[in-house]
Every structure is written in structure tokens, then in C-alpha cells.
Amino acid sequence: MKIVMAIIKPFKLEEVRDALTAIGVHGLTVTEVKGYGRQKGHTEIYRGAEYAVSFLPKLKIEVAVASEFVSQAIEAIASAARTGQIGDGKIFVTPIEHAVRIRTGETDTDAL
């Protein structure tokens, strides 16, 4: 089992959710986050004053999948979130040692 974590642009959420649903992923967690990478933020003008926005709004999506579905999940997220512009995001994969569904007590891949 693995957790696939992706940092994406906020307007790509529905496309990513639809792509994951299409491959059989039924649950995900979304968190609003801020950050920067090579984008390094941008400048904005508010009431005539220019100021730098260092941290850009992003979404962090976390999906728990069985190990054999990791590459499918990565491909679905990457293809749906890709705009071709800088700041499209990153995907990280980390192992899960143990999972338990609280309601039924199912464990590991049955709990996903």
C-alpha cells in the first residue's frame, strides 16, 4: 500500500478527481496549502501599490492505493493536472505500513 500525494493548481481539482474516479480510486483527501518552487511567486498590484506574493495557493491531494495501482494513479493525476506551464506541481509516493477502517475493523488493502 502507498500514499500518492500530489501538489496541484487549484483549478485542476475536478479534472484530477474525475481521472482518479475513472481508474477506480474512490476516496481522496484534499487540503488547501500554499507554497512555491521554481515559480518563486509573483507580484500583484493592490490599490496602486505593488507587492510580492511569495507563497502561491495550491491543493494537496492524498490518495491511499494498493501498490499495484500506484503507477495508474500517478499517470491519472499527472495527465489531468498538466497544463504545460511552470507550477503544475509534484507527485510524491510514500509507503503505508498499516491501515484500518474504523467502522468495520478491516485492515490493510481491505480498508482502502
From TrEMBL:
SMART domains documented for this protein: P-II (SM00938)
* Keywords of this entry: Nitrogen fixation, Nucleotide-binding, Phosphoprotein, Transcription, Transcription regulation
Q: An example of a Gene Ontology BP annotation on this entry?
A: regulation of nitrogen utilization
O-UMP-tyrosine occurs at which residues?
Y51
**Any signal peptide, and if so, which residues?**
none
Can you tell which superkingdom this protein's organism belongs to?
Answer: Bacteria
CC per GO annotation: cytosol
Tell me, how does this one assemble?
Homotrimer.
* Membership in a protein family: Belongs to the P(II) protein family.
Protein name (record) = Nitrogen regulatory protein P-II
